[in-house]
Each structure stands twice: as structure tokens, then as C-alpha cells.
Amino acid sequence: MRRSVIGLLVTFGIFLLFAPLAAEAPQRGNIFRVGILQFGSAELSPGGELSQPWLRGLEQALRDRGYVKGQNITVEWRSADQRVERLRDLAGELVRLKVDVIVAWDDAAIREAQHATTTIPIVMAGVRDPVASGFVKSLAHPGGNITGVTALGEEVVGKQLELLKAAVPEVSKIGVLGPPGILARYRPEVERTAQALDVQLQVLVVRGPEEFASAFELATKQGTGAVLILPWISVAANARWIAELAVQFQLPTMFRNRVFANVGGFMTYGASPSESSRRVAYYVDRILKGAKPADLPVEMPTKYELVINLKTAQALGLTLPPTLLFQADEVIR
Known about the structure:
By secondary structure, the chain is α/β, with parallel strands linked by helices. Helix content is 45%, strand content 19%.
């Protein structure tokens, strides 16, 4: 009995010692707050047509894991409307709101989220090379407060070139378009594939959206039959206009993001947005349950999808091989 009394006294003493600390702890219940940050545009905001595939996928994947908006989760959405200078302020807003985790989509958003906080976990998506970009120390051991999924490696542009050549087998020259830094990174793989396909490459250097029209004009003047557009944020931000330019200059084009095909681009091949969203939801779930980003390895894409816009093919006067159409995950008619 003496031991029981002593035990009760010790327990009571511990309670008194830590009671003030417990009273100061935030009473949040079971509602988590998730911030989403994206470079975006009006078309890339919630409800906009370009944002729907990955947004719908993310919401569904979170629901599948038991998170329902308004019940146990709230979402703070911030879109920069294609203005890079806004991202820093928007990232700061999410930090001041004390969100539990930030989902940052594409390189520019990830970088500003990284600058805004070193403590709030960040789940990245749409990033090309998180190690080279300085977001993580390595894929296996991220090391800081950032983890997530990558979007596209150098080897995928080779596959994109193969698919573009299969769509227009008669072409002997294909353009590769991008800014200097991105061209330097992807050019070795593109050149290797072009040599294997026995096609000539025309390098089209652009430094901003205002140079797309002149690049397409140069390509047609020099007999280029198709254009591979390298992954670049300005392409996603100007997808519809670039798709219209390509039809105007009668150039079949390939890009990585399916939103390009959705707004009239000819072909896209890249990581599946729905699969990427599903994996992002996995990271969000793990973090909300207490896991640290530093302990969650970064994932490479496991599922890619080919999307062909058949209406654009007809506008370009192309008749596509049935075998290519059979390979497509989606044909937009």
C-alpha cells in the first residue's frame, strides 16, 4: 500500500510539474492545415482547366487516405499567376499561417518555399533535378525539410524524341528548343538519341516567351519538320499560345506536361500527373503522422503517359501510325 501511495504522489507531482506546459500547447484538435504553392496562372488556379488533372488527383488521393476538406483538413491555396516576384510573398503567407506542410509544385515555387522556411515540411513535385537545384542533399537522404517526387530525368527526353520521330517518320531534321542552361543539361541525351534515329538536330535557343515565335519561324525557314520543347516553366505558363504558334507554323511539337496537349499541343510524354499526385498525398500523409522529410527518400516517377491531340494532328495535316495511337494513354479527339 505504501508503494501505491508513493506512486500516486509521484504521478501527481509530475502532473503539477508539466501542467503549465500542457496548458500552453496549441489546442488544434485533429484538423491539419496544408499549404499549396504554385507558379501557375489564372488557368492553373483551382477550377482552371490546366490545373484539374493533378489537383483532382491530389484531392482524391488525400480523400483515399482519410483526409476530407472541412472535416480534418483545410487547404490554403496560393497561385502566383505566372509572376515569379509574387512567389516569395505567397510562400511567406503560408509560413505565417503556420501550415503543417507545404506542397510546392515546380522549381520556382519550391525554391521560394525553401527560402521561406527551414522548419515547415515541404513536399515538392514537378521538379526536374532536386539535387542539382539544391533542394535536397541526395535522393536517398534528403537531409533537410524537403522531400517529394521528381518529374523528368535526362533519359526521358530521349524517349520524347523517339515518339516525335515515330509520329512524323518522314522528317530528317528536328528542332530542340529551350533556354541556354536547360539546353546544356539535356543536349547530350538528345544528341545521342538523334544519332541513333539518324535525324539532324537544330538547336533553337530562346531566353523568354517573346522569342518563341521567332524560333518557330527560324525552324520552318531551315526545313525543320518537328520541335522537341525541353522542360521549362515558361512553356507551361504560355502553353496555349505556344500550341497556337506551332499550328500556325505547321510544326508538330512534343512537351512533357499533358496540359500542353489539353490546350492544343500536339503530343506530350512525361510523368503521370495522377500518379505524381498520389505520391504527393503519400508524403503529406506520412508527414502529418509525424515522419520527418529528412527520413523520406525522394521518389523518381514510376508511371509515364503519352497524350496525343488528334485534332491538332489533323490541323497539321498528319496521319498518325496506328501503332503510335495504340501506345497512347489518351487520344484527344
